Amino acid sequence: MQFYKKGSSYKKLKITVESFILKKCNEYNISKTEMRILLNWNDIVGKDIAQISRPEKLSFLNNSNSGILYLAVNNGGHAIYIQYAIPTIIEKISVYFGFKAVHDIKIKQKNLI
């Protein structure tokens, strides 16, 4: 029986799964930036925002490097909180990627399961 340091095997598995999914993005016409946001949402924005919101899609206009992120939130109260947190969320995404990947965020109210 082989023992691993706590967290090391999970990190390796996450990296392996993420690299596999990113290789498949071109086949399904999904941008790698969008997929990285979907896969790493908790790490990018933090636990508080990630619990009440979920990224749905990232759309780019006119071949720009910066897009519009569509977020789903559970209720109106959370939507107001996210509305005020939009500049912070955009900044966190920019820090994560090293460039301004998102220039605007649109909020949709949906049931998150």
What does this structure look like?
Pfam families: DciA. InterPro entries: DciA-like. It comes from Candidatus Neoehrlichia procyonis str. RAC413. This is DUF721 domain-containing protein. The protein is α+β, with helices and mostly antiparallel strands and 113 residues long. It has one domain: GMP Synthetase, Chain A, domain 3 (2-Layer Sandwich), CATH 3.30.300. It is 51% helix and 20% strand. The chain has 5 helices and 3 strands. Strands 1-2-3 form a 3-stranded mixed sheet. Strand 2, helix 5 (76-97) and strand 3 (102-109) form a beta-alpha-beta unit. The longest helix is centred in the last third of the chain and has 22 residues, at 76-97. The mean pLDDT is 85.
SSE blueprint:
Blueprint: H1 8-24, H2 32-39, H3 41-45, H4 47-52, E1 53-60, E2 67-73, H5 76-97, E3 102-109
Parallel strand pairs: 2-3
Antiparallel strand pairs: 1-2
Total separate domains: 1
From the alpha carbons, calculate the radius of gyration and give it in angstroms. 16 Å
Name the poorly predicted regions.
none
Fraction of helical residues = 40-55%
Q: So how many helices?
A: 5
CATH architecture: 2-Layer Sandwich
Q: Just give the CATH class.
A: Alpha Beta
β-sheet strand percentage:
15-25%
- What is the CA–CA distance across the termini? 37 Å
Q: Describe the sheet with the most strands.
A: 3 strands, mixed
Quaternary class: single chain
What CATH calls the topology is GMP Synthetase, Chain A, domain 3
